[in-house]
Amino acid sequence: MTPLDPDRTLALTYVPAERRPAIGALWRLDAAMGAVLAGGREPLISQIKLAWWRDSLAKLDEAPAPGEPVLQDVAKHVLPRGIKGSQLARMEEGWSILLSTEPLTTTDLDNYSGGRGALLFRHSAQLLGIQMNARVKRAGEGWALADLARHSNAIDAAAALELARERLSDVGGQRWPASLRPLGMLAMLARRDAQRGLEQVEAQGAPARMLRMIGHRLTGR
Fold first, then answer.
1. pTM over 0.90
2. C-alpha span between 136 and 112 (Å, rounded)
3. How high is the pLDDT of residue 132?
4. Most buried residue, 39, 103, 127, 202, by CB count within 10 Å?
5. Up-side HSE of residue 29: CA atoms within 13 Å toward CB?
6. Cα angle vertex 5, ends 41, 131, to 5°?
């Protein structure tokens, strides 16, 4: 099973215990889709693998999960809370944008951040008992863009961080409600990355990042 990155691993510990299995399953699903692209495979092979995730998620609405741990966890913990497999399958559209062999355009980055980040934060918010609002949507988009910058070539990374700065400019303007602070933590770290730029991006799980997350948990900012 694909592990979560250190930032999400820590954020997950601040999710209420009864909701933690569902959030963990959702986030590991996102990580599993990302792992398809992380190996530097041929675009066609990656496309086939992403399509498998899309189709397998959609089938969860009608049939038991196959013998794949992430899908089994999604079926056990996420679907009973009102999120359909077909809704989760739409995340493949965001990830598939990254299969392009050309530099990513602003439109590409918009489609990716909406298809991955906004959907991930929408479903996460729902699992936390809150309906997504405009700030959560922008936070999800900005987080996905900042995360992309960590795993991209310099040209795509610079473009992603520039757009992330725009998306995350006001995420700290108002106090985040306590129930959404696990998402707020990730948004604040993404804004930190966007502000620092490519040459100063910290390693995930670094002590300074952990302190920033704890500060947000206490203050909501």
1. yes
2. 16
3. 81
4. 127
5. 33
6. 105
Write the CB contacts of 37 (distance below 8 Å, at least 6 apart in sequence): 46, 95, 98, 99
Dist CA 209 CA 18 (whole Å): 26
Residue indicated by tokens 């569902």: 22
Amino acid at 197: G
Helix ranges restricted to H, the chain: 6-13, 20-38, 43-59, 69-73, 85-89, 91-96, 106-112, 119-127, 134-149, 154-167, 181-196, 207-219
Residues 6+ apart with CB under 8 A from 133: none
Calculate the alpha carbon distances from 15 to 12, 84, 98, 184, 205 in Å.
Answer: 5, 21, 30, 12, 17
Residue type, 41: R
- Condensed to tens digits (0 to 9), the pLDDT of residues 143-169 reads 999 999 999 999 999 999 999 999 999
End-to-end CA distance of the chain: 33
Write out the two tokens for 161: 């961080």
CA distance 121 to 175: 17
